Amino acid sequence: MCAIKKHKLAALILVIVMLVGILIHSAVFWVINKAFPPLTYTTADSAVVVEMRLFLRRFAETTIGVCSTVFLVGSIMMLYSFIKTSPAVAFYKLFLLFSVTVVAMFACTVPFAIADKVFRGDYLFPVWGILAIMVLLFSILLGANLIKYLRNK
């Protein structure tokens, strides 16, 4: 398998891992906020409900943390491999990949945020964090690709 196909497959796997993490995070948050709204329990059972809410929230945070870490570490490793071994790639392909990934990230979380008007911002926090690192890595990728392109010209 050539280097470009390996990079494509690795990028696809990493993006899927990240999108699954965002989707699980958003879905669990939505369930928490709809099934266990905060500060609405005054009975003796409220401690159990609060514990369930906190458990599910930790689960969602852990899931997005693991998935985003796998995505970011994998992306850094791919970037290093690309810089060392791959030829220059057409810039429109890089922009297309980046754009589709960003749109997919928001597609996994925005519907949940729209459906939950009270906690809308909570859904987007992980996306902003991942996006900030992605922009940095994408800038490095563009710079490395430009250098490769200019050297081969």
Automatic annotation (TrEMBL):
- Organism, as annotated: Caproicibacter fermentans
Q: What is the lineage of its organism?
A: Bacteria, Bacillati, Bacillota, Clostridia, Eubacteriales
Q: What is this protein called?
A: Uncharacterized protein
Membrane-spanning ranges? 12-32, 62-82, 94-115, 127-147
Keywords of the record, alphabetical order, are: Membrane, Transmembrane, Transmembrane helix
Q: Which domain of life is it from?
A: Bacteria
